[in-house]
Structure formats: structure tokens, C-alpha cells
Amino acid sequence: MIVQTSQGQTRLINEVINNGLCVRCGACAGFCPYFDYIDGKIIPLAPCCSDTARCFQICPLAEHGEKNESDESGIGDYRKIFAARSTDPEIVSRAQYGGVVSTLMIYALEKGEIKAAVLTSRGNGSSPAGFLAESRGDILSCSGSEYTGSGGLSALNRALKAGKDMLGIVGLPCQMEAVRRMSMVEFSGENLSAPISLKIALFCTWALDHRAFDDFLVKNMDGGKIIKYDIPPPPSEKLVVQTLKRKMEYPLSDIRPFIQQGCLLCEDMTGETADLSVGTLEGSKSWNTLIVRTQRGEDLLAGAVKQGLLEVAEFPDENFNHLMEASENKRNRGRKRRIEKNK
To answer: How far is CA 274 from CA 73, 96, 113, 297, in A?
Structure first.
């Protein structure tokens, strides 16, 4: 159990938010009534007098003196790794790459494994935001990647307060870490993560500060509604922005100044505490890398494959080596920066 403190809100503001380390995971927004996620930023609404400090306990950037017990290999514990892709033409037409995440969430919803899915939507003309998907159409509307902090867990908190259960969640490694920390916090004798039935993590090297990135696009684009972002696998070193008018490309060197500083302390690229982890497959735009971590994840995948919704193939050795190298590099970079920060 994480040690409680009577200064949870003060510590979260001073040590994380004011220190420029907030990654906009949304874990505190709505979980504590005194924090909210508004247009790409976590906002303290009012002073809190509670002595539970739950907001600080669940923040993935808050330091509790816990030992990092992650697998030194860089990708954590896993059962199997596959190359996978959806066989559903509608999903494929909307997907970032192989459509695996949308396929699995729709399958879980339609099979009754979950009742709703916590996803990230593009938002209503502002920043990306958490969204509770309760139908196939809802899930499809959230297809694609945003590459910025989204406050997505705020939608989980709203769902929990509304009494929802059997929830699926798709999130970044920092959000999976926040959910893990929720499982360590009890409130009124209840495990706060108990209503979560399925966790799918997205590979992440870093995410951008939405406001800073949006300012960059306003200054450097020629207008037109954005319909898709993409950062192709190495060695591309570019961000691609597709609008209704045209496709634009920017060197990642122009984009890196907008990386959230808290992301630089992260040691987890693949979401090690999820049931399944999904990322791109280098060398192929129509396939995903799929890491199976738990029995729940393995059973869900087996069912989707049996029904012909997903195609899986052996994971190439070359890709495995690249995955391990990239994951270990992120772990080592994050660990080094965290040590330097704490000196």
C-alpha cells in the first residue's frame, strides 16, 4: 500500500504540475473533485482539505520511493508476441495501421466481455479528450493516433462515479501505470480499479504538449481540417499531418521541443501492466505488433482469431530485436534522467 499524506493536492501541484512534469494522463481529473482536464491542461479548481491524498497516490509521475521492479528486458513480462491485423474492411479503412485495437475492443464489447470502453477522441474542436464508447460506432469514431497528452483517464473517472463496471480501457503506458496505482489504493474498503475488465496499452516513446503543438501547427499549416497524424517507424524521423487539402511533413527535430517533460522520465515504452500491448510493426503499414501479457488477453485474442476477426502471424526475429532495443533504450534514458532529477 502506498503511504498516504495529508498534503496530496499540494504535493501534486508542486512536485508534478508546477514542476512541468504532468503528462496529462487524466488520472487525477474527476478522481479528485478539485482537478479537471480542460483543453489540454490539468487545472486545480480549488483547495482540497482531504487527508486521503489519493490524487497524489495514483499520479504516474509522483514519486513514492517505490522500487522499479520492471523487467530489465525493456518490454516487461509477456506470454507471446505476434504480428496481427484486422480482417474487417471498415476497421482497416479507419485504422492507424493494422486495426488491432479497434477490433479487439469491438469484439470484447459485442461478446459482453466489457460494457463500455474508455478511449481517446479528437475532442470537440479543442484538445483530444477521454471518451466513453458504448457501441461499435463509438469505438470506430476514436480510431487513429493523436500523439499528444489527452486527459483520457478523466473519462474513466466519470464512468466509475456513474457506477459503470466491466470497463475496457485503451491507454498509454503512463495511463496503465496510473491504473496500476489505483489498484493499490482502497476507498471505503473497495479496490478502485475493480470495475476495469480489460486493459490495452499503446506503445509510446513520448507524447506532445497539445497546446504547444497546436500553436506550432497554426503557424506552420496552410489551413484545412486535420484528419490524421502519423509518425512512421524509424528511420523516417518525421511527423505527417494529413488534412482535407494535402499532406504535410515535418522533421521530428521541429517537433521534439513540444515533448512533455514528464515523458522523458518514463521507463516503459510498451505498457507492461496491460493485458495486451499494441504498436506499429516496422516495415509494414498494414500490421501491428501485439504483445500478449495475461490470460485475459490471451483468451480475448484467441476468440477474435477463432471468429476470423484478426489474422496473426509469427513475429519476425528482426522486429523482435528492434523492439527490445527501442524498449531498453527508453528504459535506460528514463532511468538516467530520473536519477539526475533526484540528485
So the answer is: 16, 20, 16, 9
Other beta carbons less than 10 A from residue 188's beta carbon? 5
Place of cell 479548481: 45
Q: Tell the residue number behind the cell numbers 466489457, with chain if given.
A: 114
pLDDT in tens, 218-244: 898 876 788 889 998 878 899 999 888
| 6/26 Cα distance (integer angstroms) | 21
Look up residue 222 and give its amino acid: D
Residue 292 is placed in which grid cell? 500478449
Domain ranges for the chain, please list them. Answer: 80-207+259-341, 210-257
pLDDT tens-digit map of 125-137? 568 899 999 999 9
Among 59-73, 165-179, 231-245, the minimum mean pLDDT is found in: 59-73
Task: Find the DSSP H helices in the chain.
Answer: 8-11, 54-58, 89-94, 100-110, 136-141, 153-161, 173-182, 210-220, 252-255, 295-306, 317-341
